[in-house]
Fold:
Amino acid sequence: MLQVYRDTGTFLSSPSAALPGEIIWMDLLSPTPDERALVESRAKVRVPSIEALSEIEASSRLASDERAIYLSLPVVARGDTPDAYLTPLGLILTRQVLITVRFGPSSAIDAVANLIQAQPSLCSSAGVFTALLEVLVDRGADVLERLAGELDKVSRLVFRGNPETRRHTVRSNAALRGVLNQVGATGDRLSMARDVLLGLSRIAPFVLSLGHGWIVAEFKPRLEAVSKDVTSLNDYEGHLSNKVQFLLDAILGFISTEQNDLFKVLTVVSVIGIPPTLVAGIYGMNFKVMPELNWEWGYPFGLAVIVLSAILPYALFKWRGWI
Structure:
């Protein structure tokens, strides 16, 4: 799909070659060969494929020639759903037009479209480019804030959970496994945000370093602010990544402790049961001559020895603090 944005504040969706002259933004969503050819002929640039946009080398993501600046970065598609995934976003910036090439839905693109309609000062290729970077940074900050809130909830659940639940080993292990899944999902979303921020951190400094005169003085401070914001978000993302790792280690430690407690109980029970079994085995032997066989108190004596042989190990374990 091809959407064309004019400086008059309107969108056109048309495969026609007779596009309006004052074009400041062309947005390609999963473009067809005809749409790619139309944009290339109209803007005199090359439109990269999804394979080219997916390359991770800095030289592939940041390039320029005498006519245009070619940029690419990963963005999150369907970020408000559990099915979020990373998809490449290509940016081709020239003096006259900004071309975005994407292969998945992006709420940032829709937000920029609404923003530049409300702010006529952004109605230029550099203005749309700056607004897009600012929106991506704002969305990244919102995502990190939401993930931080989720990690705080998990932290309170892990370290200040319901004591009644923790007394029951099976239920506690099940709850910890559920929390482990939550932390894993949060860590996955955090890794997506890290990839987006890494791409953003390179773009603004690269564009500013080229020193193109058509990036007017109004937008240069805003691009510098974008670069600083991305740096601070990267630091905050690093903090959240450390917290995710800490919670993963803590949850696995709790699960291991719960399982060790269960094994300890089984071990104590088995050890306590050995002496009574030994006594019962001795008095269960079928020998004709046994001193207690004809003794009137032999049966109560045997029961007493069995009970005492169970109580003594239990008392020893209790005294040593093993149970």
Q: What stands out?
A: The domain at 2-260 is CATH 3.30.460.20 (Beta Polymerase; domain 2). The chain has nine helices and seven strands. Residues 204 and 224 are 7 Å apart (CA to CA). The radius of gyration is 34 Å.
